[in-house]
Design brief:
It is built from 17 helices and 26 strands. The chain has about 650 residues and is α+β, with helices and mostly antiparallel strands. The chain has a 6-stranded antiparallel β-sheet, with helices on both faces. A 5-stranded antiparallel β-sheet has the order 2-1-5-4-3, sandwiched between helices. A hairpin with a 2-residue loop joins β15 (about 365-375) and β16. The longest helix is centred in the middle third of the chain and has 24 residues, at about 410-435.
Amino acid sequence: MSPPPHLDPAVFDDTVAAVALLVGPEGRLVYTNSAFTRMFGARQRGLPAREAFPDPDAGRFLSVLDEVRATGRARQVTGAREPDRGAPSQARYFVYSCSPVTTAEGDGILVVAMDTTTETFALQRYQALVSAVSVMVWVLHADGGMEEIVAGWEQLTGVPWHPRADVDWYARIHPRDRERLSEGWRDAATRGAGGVFQCTFRVRAADGSYRHMSTRSVPVLREGRVAEWIAATVDIEDTWRAQLRERLLARVATVTGQSLGEAFGEVVKVVVPELTDACLILLLSHDEWPLPEHARVTARRVASATRPGLHAPPALRGQSVTLSRTVREVLESRVPRTFAVPVGGPVPADLVPAVTERWLVASGATSLTLIPLVVDDTVLGYAATSTNGDTPALGPTETDLLREVLHHAQQPIRKALDLQRARRTALALQRAQLTRPPTVHGASLAASYQPASSANEIGGDWYDAFLLPDGTLVLDVGDVVGHDLAAATAMTQMRNMLRALAYSRGSVLAPAEVLARFDEVAEGLGATPFATAVHAQLRRLPDLRWHVTWSNAGHPPPLLIPAHGDPVFLTGAEEDLPLCVDLGLPRSTHSRVLGTGDTLLLYTDGLVETPAASLTDGQRRLAHEAALRRMAPLPELLHGLQDLSDHRDDTAMIAFRADPPL
């Protein structure tokens, strides 16, 4: 086998690249071409390398020459040359390739240098640009390795950049974002040259919080195939939070609940799961503020929401907690406070109802934050929010945003409070009028009034029972159109007017004449509520039965529940118009005899009318349930029948039963 040919450096005389040849153990400079002289200046040949290159910045270059000579392996190194002091020119950058060769004078090193100043400046400008806008730039190679081009990862996360995503990179991604991020990469890789990957995800920062990042990656093609991906990742936390704030405040502005429970029920759906994993609202049972120091005050849960994937929250019923000193301190300071929850519990005691404590432990709560609810300088209660599972505890930024969103719910909450106060006023007025039925010899009486569950359904229904001077028993039931304070006021006027007319003339006027007289008086006084009513008069007969006469002004018919046989609705021969509609039309009086043990029930339409069923269906259910309870004492009968209502409307009932002889 013939030896390799000796290198003839003359072949490099006209090349663009700068070339130098050094031989021997001292690396004597034996050759430089014209390009080398232009780049680095003239060098005296025959001198050892350290004398031929005495430049201050030549140390690294000389060390590489020694390494190539010792190992026999080629090396590549970058270098820079600063301009002479006072010279206007800029620094220049080079890439040196140092390779072992054989020459006629022995073993040597061939140095090939390329000027990369233009490319280096371009890269520096790009790095400065992306650094100015906080962009990290990195490359994903075909073998899965990752190279950080513009640094930023360690500054964000506190850990050094790792060249393998599966080793450390993904561990810093929020657990609920990892699968979506992986799917996005797989989809982009499948699309290949036409794929562009873009995704927003959360990264755990050095302080333990998560920040939202946005990354966009495009493929780099070589010979028509994807050789690598270059990606730019930017921190968008501030922008994301600003957009989230605008979105949440816009949503909370649309809250329209009529009651406090309904309004807060909409509010908790705004903050879950955007800001927290679970949120429950607890309202104080005490109206006085500041709270009396030693008074026992409870807070009742009125609304809650949980993010998907957690256990459903327990039912609202029976969820209350006596305010502890800790909760009082939070409410009095009006400053939110976060409590850490260890894995597996327990939850700090007496912050939320006991059933909620158990739910928090079962749902893997990691923290609990209490936020006072303040409207018009009055503390209504507090919101209790939790983070669960892999969600980190709320930081100051999230807590402040939660507090702001709850604060902006003041307008609908204030409206609900106004309705609640009006409801209380109307109910007080209502209950003041709904007096206890009198004691009647030979009969039993019971009455019931149930307000609607909704705050805007108040004050229209009523009942009345009283004795005339001659011993006649009068029973009235009615419903004024409207469900507000005005309806409650009209109901009061109507009840008192009808009572006065019946008491003064009831002994000589039939029920139809009493209602007709009411129409005339209401018209003359300008008090003409649109209302329905049943006016009944009952007189005891010598044989201990009772004779009942009644007139129905557009109201649901009374129900007769006989001691034996099927219940029957007393519809009469004709149906009369509601009150205050047409004074020219006559009204009808109907009559019936009640035997001992028979029950007469007067009621309002809230008992039988629901959106899901017709009036006929409601009356059928009423007759069926009444038959099942015909032998029950009247208070129990009314209590059982009350369950027929869906509580969307208020309901009034009064029942009369002819007692058997002693």
